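ingest -> validate -> predict -> emit
validate: passed (alphabet ok, no gaps, 126 aa)
predict: started
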Amino acid sequence: MRLAAPFLTAALVLSPLALVSPAHASPYQNCAEAYAAGHSNIPKSSPLYADYLDRDKDGVACDDEPAGFVQQPTPVATPTADASPTSVEEDLAETGGSDATPYIVGASVLFLGGGTVLALRRRRQY
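emit:
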């Protein structure tokens, strides 16, 4: 039971990392929703962009608009006087991480924790 305690502690500490949202989260589930709202050719710098909307991975999402499509202006987030700095997501720097980063960090912590537990057990034996 002593061996499971460090792993359980690490799992509880790292579980919130799995809930971290990706850097770009579009309000649209697919391009059909984006087209219905009047948005196409969404650049990677736009708050409407998401990797899953960019099927050809060219940095422009929903770039195959249907016939008769009418483009709407892209909303630009402007901070208000009472807005806190964390409420405007466009001002945040990208970390360069991916969706797999929390899992890699979690596995690393569990690996290091397991190594520490084994080292301590070995030390107690001598």
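Residues 23-82 form one domain.
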